């Protein structure tokens, strides 16, 4: 049968980091990656989604960093949709705030497990019990209080608890038994896209299934093209991206919408047809919207 033709192998878990503005999402990732993204952000506010891969115990983990500013609900919602696990970062000196609640809601709506990282534990004013009580009220009850959720105390400043957090992620990933078939046709999700000077349309995607390769003919919404280059999370050219991996795709005809599904197809002709159909569909939708407005 079909199942026996599959070639399922373990894939990297995709982890989305969410939480209220300035609770330390990017700093936590920076510590994990030994990078310094947070320091370089204008005004200290993350304004876009970032995707990174980290190795732990010989296994890869993909992280998606999201902004905590209230204006970016749509980005958080998309982040929750492509993820296997959501990490909600809560600053122990600040407690549950509006975007903490929003993050919990996105994760619940997506039906994915939630791990709580109680951050800024190095601070004098840290109050992890208050964080537990506030989250318990939202139905996110810690295991040591008889609930089902892991609360991991961490500090992005000192690195305290970060090994525990990574172990907790891998244990949760084991429970989920995440598998994919690298020999299948590519299916990926666009998590971010832009038009870059000298590069043209650029899309960051997370591969869900199949192996994406340079030279593949792909279509994502109204965008299509032959993959000219693939770049990893450090901007280094790679030949392929496996299931669970994030990769930047160059060579598309247009900037695909974030959230679009990217697939590979057999020919340029098919890719053009798919893209044309999508464009036509969007035109019709726009048209029916404006008709409705004028009828009101
Ligand atoms: P947005 O993406 O804008 O929502 O913010 P964020 O959640 O990514 O927070 P960010 O990493 O930008 O950190 C916000 C501030 O908190 C920065 O000044 C960090 O240096 C500080 N910070 C983050 N984690 C810790 C921590 O564990 N301890 C202390 N003391 N400060 C921290
Ligand atoms: Na910030
Ligand atoms: Mg940030």
UniProtKB/TrEMBL annotation:
<comment type="similarity">
    <text>Belongs to the TRAFAC class translation factor GTPase superfamily. Classic translation factor GTPase family. IF-2 subfamily.</text>
</comment>
<protein>
    <recommendedName>
        <fullName>Translation initiation factor IF-2</fullName>
    </recommendedName>
</protein>
<feature type="region of interest" description="G-domain">
    <location>
        <begin position="13"/>
        <end position="161"/>
    </location>
</feature>
<feature type="binding site">
    <location>
        <begin position="65"/>
        <end position="69"/>
    </location>
    <ligand>
        <name>GTP</name>
    </ligand>
</feature>
<feature type="domain" description="Tr-type G">
    <location>
        <begin position="10"/>
        <end position="179"/>
    </location>
</feature>
<feature type="binding site">
    <location>
        <begin position="119"/>
        <end position="122"/>
    </location>
    <ligand>
        <name>GTP</name>
    </ligand>
</feature>
<comment type="function">
    <text>One of the essential components for the initiation of protein synthesis. Protects formylmethionyl-tRNA from spontaneous hydrolysis and promotes its binding to the 30S ribosomal subunits. Also involved in the hydrolysis of GTP during the formation of the 70S ribosomal complex.</text>
</comment>
<feature type="binding site">
    <location>
        <begin position="19"/>
        <end position="26"/>
    </location>
    <ligand>
        <name>GTP</name>
    </ligand>
</feature>
